[in-house]
Amino acid sequence: MGDFLALPIRVGDGNVHVNYFRTFIRPYRGATLPTGAQLLANMPKFMSAHTAAVWKDSRRWHAQDVLTFRGVARVRPFLLVATGVGPLPGGLIPIPLSDELARIGIPESIRQLMIPQWHTDSVGLARAPFAHAFTVQTLKREFETDDDRKIRRLVGQQIRGANASWIDRAADAARTLARFAIPGVAPMDDAQQLASTLLGNWAVMINQHHFLAGRRSFLIGTAAGLEFTGPGVQPGDWVFETAALERYSLATYGYATNLGMGGAARVVRPVWMEMGQQLARVYGQPVGPTIPLQVEFGSIPAATGSAIFADVAARHKALVPGLP
Fold it and tell me: Which residues contact 271 (CB under 8 A, 6 or more apart)?
């Protein structure tokens, strides 16, 4: 097994998001359009620390580069457990846990545990950079990081601090779940250890997922070449655009993001709006604000069959695997 697993949009959950963020740039005198490889290499310069830091990972995915983002959002891993919805590790059939967990009485401090900013999102090149563009695929990490180990310790601390009256009943439920081959869970005798292992594994599994499944593309060109216009835009100006076809990778991210942060559209908007402005300042000056478009569809066919997606895909050709 490799270090990363692709999260194509078909494995995701919830509505499908089609979006783009477009920035017009007045380039410095003598500036030349960066290639796709140069855009990729300069990604750390384009991201703002107060929205999302990014760096090149030391590991690779199918021999292609991997970028790791650390955003400002926090993760509530057991919302999936608390609501009893969403896919289990390995794509297993979800088990309705809500009634059982209510009977067991898992403490609110665990069910509503909010992990500090220990979450990172990994993306890998969907193919080698070309011309003046590149496309990335969201990924799940298949290895543990220091952040994951911190999460395990945090979960263990919560378990040890919980009232012992529910531990034995939680262990009974955990032994049942062990039959579904959740990694690392076995019918141990020590109830506290079993509960800690189960919930720790679950939290780490969620943390290893990029919160979105799908692809994002980055493109730069001239306003004249891309036939874009805008207030004050001149033919020699440049246009940078990032576009995506994506949805939540897990139901727990959908619930946590929609309930706690106002939805994915609200979370990603400041990241890519800021990136457009940062990139413009690297190569010249922005001409006006970054222009967003964000639309949701109820299914993948509805999204990919829309006129909006057809317009986006004409410029960003690798958003769906198999498109030319």
Answer: 47, 51, 52, 71
